[in-house]
Amino acid sequence: MTATLPARRPPSTVPPQGTRGVLLAVLVLALMLGGAALIGWLLSGLTARLYPTAPPYMILIYVLGALLIMMPLVVRAVPWISNWYYLFPALVFLAAFTVLPIVLTVNYAFTNYNAVNSGNPDSALRTEATLSPDRRVVTLAETPQSASVQEYLRCDTPGCAGEPLVLFDDQASVPYRTQVQSVDGLQVTLSAPFVPDITVARATRINSYEYVGLENFREIFAKASRALVPVFIWTVVFAFSTVIINAIAGLILGILLYNKRLKGRNVYRTLLFLPWAIPAVISVQMWVALFNQQFGIVNKSLGLLGIAAVPWLGDPLWAKISVLVVNLWLGFPYMMTATISALSTINEDLYEAASIDGASRWQQITNITLPLLRSSFTPILLSGFAFNFNNFGIIYLLTQGGPPQQGREATAQSTDILLSWGYNTAFASSGGQNFALASAIALIIFFLTLAISLVNFKAAGVFEEARR
């Protein structure tokens, strides 16, 4: 009597339904993409060791090749996944432009990564060097700005075991990274013979960066009174004032232009819509010229009235006012258009009934128009606050964060908001291109924005509406 095993059921070609199916498909695709990225990274690292002159884009070729091999293999194991391959481009862009920047920002926030500690060879401290015949010992001519090789290479151990050393040929066009085994005076013994067939002429160290824990956050909060606190207060004032001023201007103009008895209202709408249609870069540069203290048309016009020239962009207070004025010019058309669109959803019978009851135009606006516009304007105001909280463009283009203010950090001047403060820290010379500190600032901005958004949503009753 023979026993027969039950036939193995082939994998189902029907994809799981509902949210579970979508999440499962995304998980499978993410694992496949992560596996291909890992294979590409490992192969590119091996290629860089064997062929130091290999182009950096080899990692993309390896990742693409790994995907082409893995995709049919995964389909054999999970047949229904082929229906979800259209999500691959979205996952790639999400990983490249969202996930990776977030991971790098969080990682750099706990390091000392900056223009000096960049992980690259130090070109300013190169020294002449020679390589022994067995290609194992590098002799340095000197140690620039250092008393010893250990200090020059910034070794954590006396023998410098495992520390990197970069070698160059006569032209110094391609850096070759090696690993140190030991140090004796000016002689550096490598852990393995130097393989590339070149004549070593120079050497230098790697300006490596390291993890420093919460040191960046300690530095930020230690200088809070000179940067974080005043910049945060101005950011909130700027965002809140902009939203309120623009909303009031947009409401007034929208209500006026919605009046069907107004002659030429389409012409007025078109003219008032132009500030929104013109690119902000052009508009802001125009305002910079208008606000010029000596030659600007604004001060020239004030001079005709006997008013002294106003330092629009040269005084901290007036610069803040200038920012609000220019942002009003750029923002009121959006609020005006939103008001006109919202007004078109209100039933005209309500106004007719109010007119029959003897209500004035002002009473109709306060008792009918404004209450009915509340539900439409709440998400607009919240999104406007969130946008202006990080409105880097208007600050950078109009004032570059200035003018300078006494008692402030060089990267956090009178009109700087949190985002421009982080930008100045990371990319401006005054900030020393301190990418690690800027990453810490970015994390602080994230948590502050999240907290303010939660407060706004709670105050506006968004969560209560979502539960209904």
TrEMBL record:
Name the CDD domains for this protein: TM_PBP2
Read off the InterPro entries from this record. Answer: MetI-like, MetI-like_sf
UniProt keyword list: Cell membrane, Membrane, Sugar transport, Transmembrane, Transmembrane helix, Transport
Question: Protein name, please?
Answer: Maltose/maltodextrin transport system permease protein
The lineage, from the top, is:
Bacteria, Thermotogati, Deinococcota, Deinococci, Deinococcales
The ABC transmembrane type-1 domain is annotated at 232-456
Report the membrane topology from the UniProt record.
Answer: Multi-pass membrane protein
* Pfam families according to UniProt: BPD_transp_1 (PF00528)
Q: Which organism is it from?
A: Deinococcus aerophilus
